[in-house]
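Hi V.,

You were right to ask for the full record rather than a summary. Here it is.
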Amino acid sequence: MEGNIMLVKEQIREISEIATKERTFEKQIQLMKNQWKPIKLDLIPYKETETYTLKNVDPITDKLDEDIAKI
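Predicted structure:
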């Protein structure tokens, strides 16, 4: 009986660690989503086409790099 309890105890510990890491990751993702909400993507026409490009992409790429590093 004692051996079975120790097996379950170890499984519970492992599950708890995984769940804690998942929750931390979910919180980080939600924080990133909230930080991206106010960011405006300014589009400008590209030459004489019906295509647009992003204006002033440096802050956007900096934020992307930061978030990728966090993940």
